Amino acid sequence: MTDALAAMRRMESLIAGLPGVVYRFVMGRKGKVEYVSRQIADLCGVGPEHFMDQGSEKLALLIHPDNRMQVLRSVSRAARSRRPFALEHRIRCHNGAQKWVWHRGAVVRPDPGGPLHLEGFALDITERKRQERELAWLAQHDVLTGTANRGRFMEEVSACMQRAERHGEMLACLFLDIDRFKRINDTFGHAFGDELLRCIARRIRRCVRGNDVIGRLGGDEFVVLLDGITAPQDAAVAAQKILIELAAPFTIQGRRIEAGASIGISCYPGDAGDAASLLRNADAAMYSVKRTGRRAFRFYSEEMSGRAFETLALLGGLRDAIGSDAMNLCYQPRLDLRTGRVVAMEALARWHSEQYGNVPPARFIPLLEDAGMTEAFTSRVLNDACRQLSRWDAEGMPAARMAINLSARQFRNDTLPEQVEALLAEHRIVPERIEFEISELAVMEDHPAATESMHRLHRLGVRLAIDDFGSGSSSLHLLKQLPLEYLKVDRRFIAGVPSDDDDIALTEAIIAMGKRLGLRVVAEGIETEAQGVFVRANECDEGQGFLFSRPMPAEDAGEWLRRRLH
Ligand code: C2E
Ligand code: MG
Ligand code: MG
Q1: How many CA atoms lie within 13 A of 318 on its CB side?
Q2: Which of 46, 103, 190, 560 has the most CB atoms in a 10 Å sphere around its CB?
């Protein structure tokens, strides 16, 4: 050992008793580590040998990735300026744990032309950081329930409002007051009341999405911020869920107790332009619930209340309908325009509600999706459609293929391909006989999960069509990358044919483009002979519409097929 190294070792043993770690790396020829002080093991759990003969990348790995750039910048600045650096950052220990350190260091070259020394002092401040985090948390939360306190909640509302304004989104504030809370608290004591509040906070959490903010304003007043909702009805659905959840009895200290809540809702941008008014209006709406009875919700604006109640009533019926005869599928044939042969039957969902009459799919599908009933609906439609196809086969009236509509939400379901595969096996249907129609808007969302589903379904062998083409704004590039076989021209274009010049030009262009992309083009909504003549003249491959047949209940559709065959 050289004298210089021996001196370093003596120095190290002298400072070994200090809090913190003094370290030194000596970078020799070609930037490789030649010497490492032993204390480094105290800090990150590795011995000096871990670094010997390694490049500086090995040292950089010690630093937490989130802080790495910042530290490397400080070190290189210190090397240039020959002045020490000081900063706080995290390191990654050998056992995977993280530590916060206060780190002061310098880069020096004691002998001109000699090796570079990186040396410094690091103090473990993990505990202090934890305490800081805890204090920050305490300053922003309600300790009893762990929900946001008033200050934090208002900050979140303001931040979300700004974001909502930029993206043209909507948000809603729910103001909840627990019915009879004061009486419960007075009768059973504060410990009991506290426990009830904790249970309530937990139940509210179960009803909202992970990024929705829950706050307690004190006493028994809770607030919920629903971020990025698409319609006020979404807030009504959440409020209803919370009411149901809170209406169930609580068991606290072995005692069963009923609480329940009243909820007021205000929406941005409709009801308020700033955080304070949003909260005030939700509060006012909550008071009006209290005045007229409890265990209900109300919107600040009357008009929204009316619409929300209708939505909820519809939802109630819808839940039952999915499992009953009130919902079924109608079938509309699709023909080859050259030969006139039936190439597919499209399954179209129908709901007849006792209370509301025939509710169109465009109304009830978004509703059931928002209420989390998508999967039940998908299973119902897939099952019915597959069963019908094999029934027609068995009756000697093969309907060529079955076309099934899938919304964006239905499509994003990871397990859809497995579900389809199982159904095909159960009903002994070859995959080519099933076609899924996805609307252009859904395709263009370019949701990775949807694209993935599309490829998996394609690999299964089922056919894919893009529906209502022309209603969105397609990226042709994306269109080319997807495993599509059919393009269905939106019926709004066909409606203007052959009188509207724009529709004529657009329909011609879409048909031509679809064919250039190698897709079979289908015109939907053909109602008149003139429209039929027009699309045939433009060499559109297939057609569908009232001219050939309206959508029919299964039995009539079977009859229709039979007549065409004989
Ligand atoms: P779509 O897939 O484009 O279905 C064609 C719609 O056009 C159907 O309306 C059909 O009844 C209607 N139609 C057919 N021929 C003509 C015609 O000549 N003239 C006119 N004016 N209309 C015609 P429907 O059944 O109300 O369905 C509307 C949309 O609802 C469908 O559009 C589809 O996107 C969606 N949908 C229907 N059933 C389902 C389903 O089971 N699942 C999903 N995800 N969506 C469905
Ligand atoms: Mg369709
Ligand atoms: Mg369509």
Answers
A1: 25
A2: 103
